[in-house]
Amino acid sequence: MSTLYDCAVPADRTSGLAAAAGAVRSGRLVVLPTDTVYGIGCDAFDAKAVRYLLEAKGRGPDMPVPVLVGSWTTIDGLVLSVPRQARALIEAFWPGGLSLVLQHAPSLAWDLGHTRGTVMLRMPLHPVALELLRDVGPMAVSSANKSGFPPAGTAQEAWDQLGEDVGVYLDGGPCTDNVASTIVDLTGPDPLVLREGAVPLADVREVLGIEVEVAG
C-alpha cells in the first residue's frame, strides 16, 4: 500500500523521510521532490530496484537512469576522474539544475541500464531530496512519470501516473519551474550539451569559457 507524506508538516516530514529511507534500503521505490521535477528513485546500487523503476515507468534499459547525490564530494567515489571542467560546473551550479555525464568508476557494482561506462550525476537543490540522499547515499532517480507522458510537477501528479508501483511519496510542494535539468556530457574531447533545461546554455559557456556545442 502506498503512502503520501506532506513534508510541509514537520511530523509528516520526519515520518516520511524515515519511511522513504526504509523503502530505499529494502529495494523499493520512492517518489521525491527535486528543484526541477518530481523523481522516482531507488538505491543506485540495487540492480533489482532499478529494474523495478524502469518497469514502473514503462521503459527499458536503453535509457539509463541518472543518479542523484547529496554532496559534491560523493561523486569522487563514483567516477573514474573528475575533470577540471566538471569541477567548475559543480562549483557554479550544484546543487541545482545541471546534470553531468562522466565515465563511472569501473569498480562500481551497479546496473543503471545501457550506460556504456558512463553515469549522469546531479545534486538537486531541494531540502527534502538532499536530506534523503544524505541519509541513504546515491539514488537512481528518473522523472516521476510513465514513459511518454509529461513529468510530474506535484506529488499528486506522480501518484496519478505511478500509483501503487511506488511505496512512499514525499510531497514537497509543487515544482516551481517544472523544467528538466540541463545535461552536459564531459566524456568526449570537448563538452557537449545534450539538453538545455534549467541552466541556460549561455551560463554553461560563461563558466567554461568556451563555445560549448549542442547535440543534434
TrEMBL record:
Group of enzyme by EC: transferase
Keywords: ATP-binding, Cytoplasm, Nucleotide-binding, Nucleotidyltransferase, Transferase, tRNA processing
UniProt subcellular location: Cytoplasm
Reaction catalysis annotation: L-threonine + hydrogencarbonate + ATP = L-threonylcarbamoyladenylate + diphosphate + H2O
InterPro entries linked: DHBP_synth_RibB-like_a/b_dom (IPR017945), Sua5-like_dom (IPR006070), TC-AMP_synthase_SUA5 (IPR050156)
Keyword ATP-binding among record annotations: yes
Gene Ontology biological process: regulation of translational fidelity; tRNA processing
GO molecular function terms attached to this record: ATP binding; double-stranded RNA binding; L-threonylcarbamoyladenylate synthase; tRNA binding
YrdC-like domain segment(s): 14-199
One term under GO cellular component: cytoplasm
Entry EC no(s): 2.7.7.87
SUPFAM superfamilies the record matches: YrdC/RibB (SSF55821)
Family: Belongs to the SUA5 family.
Name of this chain's protein: L-threonylcarbamoyladenylate synthase
